[in-house]
Amino acid sequence: MKKVFLLLLCSYSSVYAGSRVLPPVVDNSIYPAGAGSSASAPSSNVVYEILGRLEQLQIEVQQLRGVVEEQAQTIVDLKKRQGNIYSDLDLRLQELSKTNVAMSDANSSTGAKNSLVSEQGDSSSNVNAGVAQIKPAAITDKERYQKAYEMLRNGHNNRAITAFNALISDFPAGEYADNSQYWLGEAYKVNQEMDAAKAAFLKVVMKYAGSPKVPDALLKLGYIEFEFKNMAKARDYFTQVTVAHPQTTAAHLASKKLLQMDEMLR
């Protein structure tokens, strides 16, 4: 009986195993690695970084446009200014030409009137009065000094030298003679004409002894001698400034130079 029961149990198990459907077996080895997974989307941080760079580039482009527009406006303004300068110069030349023509006509009229003095009587006095009205006012020594100084300040050294020499020649005892003599020395010094500069500064000391430019002239003489390694002369000039003009700026600078010379000897 037991044998029969075991046989029935075995037969039933085999039938159940045959009827059971197993899941299909998939061989993943035939697919390339990673083919089954979809490509991951780009990171949001990268997108934000690209957007930030684009925004920065836009800002820089706008800044460059502003610089270009500003430079373009500057060029326009410079062209306008240049045009105004040329126009002003042309007007001045025209006025000067008209003045010369008027003076020439007046002079010729004066000559004609003078030739008829014996016949015309008082006519010559009327002509002279007309000429006096046309004749331009003389330039003062102050105006000439200011123009010469402006030439030197703007770097026109040779023109300044000519102007200062002419001013000193025309007004040797004028109010601006001592200053003109001093700045003449400065102009020569800037031009590296040291002998002429020394002569000009010495004239300030010798010819205009009471001028406030004397201590400055002595200081510049000391600088020139120091530059050429003439230490004894340089020390003499610096000492003169400190002794004779102790409360001046030149004396303060001369004292510093003397200390520097003392340090060099140590």
Keywords:
266 residues; mainly alpha; flat
Report what the structure shows.
The protein is mainly alpha-helical and 266 residues long. Among the domains are: 56 residues; 56 residues; 55 residues, no CATH class. Helix content is 77%, strand content 0%. The chain has eleven helices and no strands. Helix 10 runs antiparallel to helix 11. The N and C termini lie far apart (137 Å).
Lay out the secondary structure:
Elements: H1 2-19, H2 44-115, H3 117-120, H4 123-134, H5 141-153, H6 157-170, H7 177-190, H8 194-207, H9 214-227, H10 231-244, H11 249-265
Helical region count?
11
Poorly predicted runs of 5 or more residues = 15-22, 33-40
The helix-and-strand class reads mainly alpha
Main beta sheet, described? none
Cα radius of gyration in angstroms: 50 Å
Total count of strands: 0
Amino- and carboxy-terminal Cα gap: 137 Å
Quick description:
By secondary structure, the chain is an all-alpha fold.
